[in-house]
Amino acid sequence: MITLPEFPLDGLGRIGAAAILILISLIISRWREADLEKDLLIATLRSFVQLIAIGYALEFIFNLDSPLWTLTLLVLMTTIAGRTAAQRGKNIPHAQWVALVSIGLGSALTLGILVAVNVFTFDPQTIIPVGGMVIGNSMSVAALVMKRLASDFHDQRNLIETSLALGATSQQAARPQLRTSLQSAMIPIVDTTKTTGLIKLPGAMTGMILAGASPMEAVQIQIVVLYMIIGASAFTGLTASYLTYRQFFTPAHQLCFAD
Amino acid sequence: MHPKIEIRGLHIARKKQSILRGVSFAVQPGEVMMLIGPSGSGKSTLLRAINRLLEPPPNSILLDGEDITGLPVTELRCRVGMVFQQASMFPGTVAENIAHAATLHKTILPKERIYELLEAVSLSQEFAATDAAQLSGGEAQRVALARTLATSPDMLLLDEPTSALDPHATRQVEETLLRLNRERGLTLIWVSHTIEQTRRVGGNVVLLNQGQVQASGRVADVLDPNGSNQQALDFAAGEDIRSK
Known about the structure:
The complex is a heterodimer. Chain A is an all-alpha fold. In chain A, 78% of the residues lie in helices and 0% in strands. Chain A contains 10 helices and no strands. By secondary structure, chain B is α/β, with parallel strands linked by helices. Chain B has helices at 43-50, 73-79, 94-98, 100-104, 111-120, 137-149, 167-184, 195-201, 219-222, 230-236, and strands at residues 5-14, 17-27, 32-36, 61-63, 66-67, 80-83, 155-159, 187-191, 204-209, 212-218. In chain B, helix 5 (111-120) packs across helix 6 and helix 6 (137-149) runs parallel beside helix 7.
């Protein structure tokens, strides 16, 4: 019999106290007629319910300590990320499938390599929060690549078809757009990595320091996290760009749109 | 020997709507074939099908008796060059644009060949180093033509190549194309947006209407003011023959 952990009341008190900031934001929104009160309230309540729920779910899975349950949760997270990213590529045929495979493959490769080279162990306490970071980041990259590529194929149709008509294969004709889409997804991450620690302390590091870890311990983990995010972005971006490209070209090197 | 192209009962539909409905005609080697018709009559679709930018049904387009859907598509597109209504330039110089096809095949197009192609489209050698983004409409269209000629095509598919040009540039492009036809025996299948241009260019003409061949034959006969193709003449007068 598994017992669910109790939510610490002093924690609830802290959350309640921090909610003063939400109250101030509501007052500002009302005062400046920003009309954000409803959205703010929904976002606040949703985040509260979602995070408490995931807190319970994590405690439950950590207590189970079962690789199968850990894997199931990772697959569930990937599926939700795939559905979310696919919404950015509504005009892409099989967008759901493209997003799911890209995020799944990018995340699995990244986590697989990190576990294989003993950076992380495959236990729920480690792999679920790390997996969350990887999957979340992969989701943003997949969405960016899919959206950019679909819009570039549409806007640059004439240029692509000019290249095809000159005897280019579809891969040759789409190369500039493939390159740009990958760049657009990777540049923010590369830029963040360049300025990390200079402008703000990254999330993982801040969390660890708040939880009592020494700054050097936190820095070590943060460096690994940054490398991991770059790797996940590259794997996911590459897969998403290739799979999206495949949706727009026929085997006879013809550019086609669903509309 | 340049090949003959034959269109046999070509049907093309998109979103369950017929665009071409049983189009048939043949173009002989070295011929100039004008394609005219109101907008939406299927002229561009026909050119795209010949270039296989759109997939035609098997055995509906034959190149020298061979079904084009059975030919390697990249090879076909080099043999049957296409010039679009809007000349899109790749980033880089005019020379880089002309060498685009060679670059795709990882070969180098010699400078002399680039100059020769520029000359063929009545542009001076100095254009080679010009940034392609800086060209005027007429210059860009002639560079697009030189870029297509670089693949040594047997025939050219021209999709309203002068519709975006002023009258002076239009005449220059027309003269260039007709000279290439005369001197090199290059077959031209030319979609034109004006009846005046069709008369000027001459040769043969196919009049398309609602995806079907309305009339075909010598330009002088099909567009004869005393002939029976009243609908073609309505088109010449700028009327939409679909409303007739």
